[in-house]
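User: Run a structure prediction on this.
Assistant: Running it now.
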Amino acid sequence: MAYTMLSLERYGPWALVTGASSGIGMSFARQLAAAGFNLVITARRTQRLDALAAELQQQHPITVKTVNLDLSDTASLSHLVEACHNKDIGLIISNAGFGFKQRHHKLRMSDLDNMLDVNCRAPMALSHHFLPHLLERGKGGFIITSSVEAYFGVPGSAAYSATKSFAKTLGEALYGETVGCGVDTLVLCPGLTDTEAPTLQGFDKKEMKGMKSPDDVAAAALQSLGKQPVLMSASLPFRCMIQIARLLPRGLLLRKASASIDKIIRP
């Protein structure tokens, strides 16, 4: 695995990573640990989180604090803030998120509420809390994980694509507010990535073309921090497909997307 050596002086000594128990979040944590960052890592799955902390502290001379919480519980944000108290956190990675592949009306409203809290409220609250500290330091970074589905409303993924559009728009605006202040803001928009998400949504990953590894996605984001406001981290064919889709008449695009999603979502 190729690690990105971020400047500890600029972005350290502590970094916060949400959704760190698997996928892109775990890759962020491993690469930051290799670069010498102390970490606050959060996720719902305590055993996985503790195992990751033990692994990182065994392999690197760093300190890792675990915070087991569910960001769909709005009260958990205050617990996370408390856990970060007295730690000079210079890099915040708001990575936790989840989605569904199903017709909108077939989903439970409670699940949609939880997704809204994790995908939208959490990055909004974390940026609101931590940005004053970063601006006072005059240095640091903030990364928000969005999705390529943020670029247009995706049938079969209506609320998820809407939440990721919120995250992308939030991050872009924060980039504009922080540029020139020493604080680097980046929106990460991954495409197909080899995480648990496709399987949990009912897809066969063997049939999915152009899938990237979470290590490559995390590394690309860390390399892009401070260089651009938005990174679309997807294979070249997938990036081309997204760009072509954005040029199509919106009605035609949505009809074609709806017909395609009917073939793969669960009945």
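The first strand starts at residue 14 and ends at 18.
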